[in-house]
Amino acid sequence: MAARSRSKSGKVRRQPKGGGRAIPFAAPSPEDQAQALADRLSRDRMETFTATLRPEAGNPAVPDIRALHEVVRGSFALFDSLLDDLILDPPLACQRGCIHCCWNQVALTEPEALYLGLYLLDTRTPEQLRELAAKTEGLVDGLKGKSWREIGMARHRLPCLFLENGNCSVYPARPLACRGWNSVNATMCLESNLTEDALTPIENHPILRLMADSIQDGLLRGSKNLALEAGYLLMARATHLMLRDDPATAILACAESWLLGQPFFGRKRDW
User: Fold this and answer.
1) Pfam families, alphabetically (predicted)?
2) Distances from the Cα of 95 to the Cαs of 21, 183, 186, 201, 203, in angstroms?
3) Which among 12, 72, 256, 271 has most CB atoms closer than 10 A?
């Protein structure tokens, strides 16, 4: 029979047999820890996004583009800080100047797309924006009628819109999909491009993709909380929408339209 003792409150408390040995504590599995991190990141970004962009009382129709810029910038900074704190074994093969994964078409959320648009507006001249608009239209025309899967399978023949002179020309504003994409073996990446085999296995760290996906999920959840259009967009198509007409003014108009709850990105188009 298990021993019994009394607590300070006088209640009888049973002790396990064997001299009161502590019950072993089962540490969370790596899978459980990863899921807990994903849940925390998604919830944090959702709450931050909602609190930062919630319309002011009495003035609900005024969009705050600066707040949108700040919350997305903070989301990117959060991912970067988490990456800096990780000790990865094996280390990442991704280095400055490595562009193997830039032969690809990536998806991003509306907040990320608008952040990218604002970055373009801040870093390119009106003439450069018009040149980019023409380049974007050509790429989008080439993607017309293709499904996500078809685009993914042909990715090695579709360099990123922003791959210029062997570098990412929008690196500070690159979306979370790019930040989470990683490899521990650059030879695998090169082989994938040379063979044009989209199914070539590339060894990577799932934790980085999980962090990026979770932060993206939080941005989408925050958007939905504010009744804003929320979904995943192909970066080339989103850029095409932002640069149509007069690129110098269309980007801001797009941001204002989305912040007012209008389905700018979701308008039916012949893709």
Assistant:
1) CxxCxxCC
2) 51, 10, 9, 19, 15
3) 72
**Calpha distance 222→108 (Å, rounded):** 15
Q: Report how far Cα 127 is from the mean position of its chain's Cα atoms.
A: 29
Please report whether residue 155 resides in a domain: yes
**Residue 49 falls inside a structural domain:** no
Number of domains observed in the structure of the chain: 1
The answer to whether position 219 is within a domain reads yes
Residue % of the chain over a pLDDT of 90: 64
Bridge partners, residue 13, by sequence: 5
Tell me the per-residue pLDDT of 29-86, one tens digit each, with 9 for 90 and over: 888 898 999 999 999 999 999 999 987 655 555 568 999 999 999 999 999 999 999 9
Q: Is residue 182 part of a domain?
A: yes
* Residues in the chain, total: 271
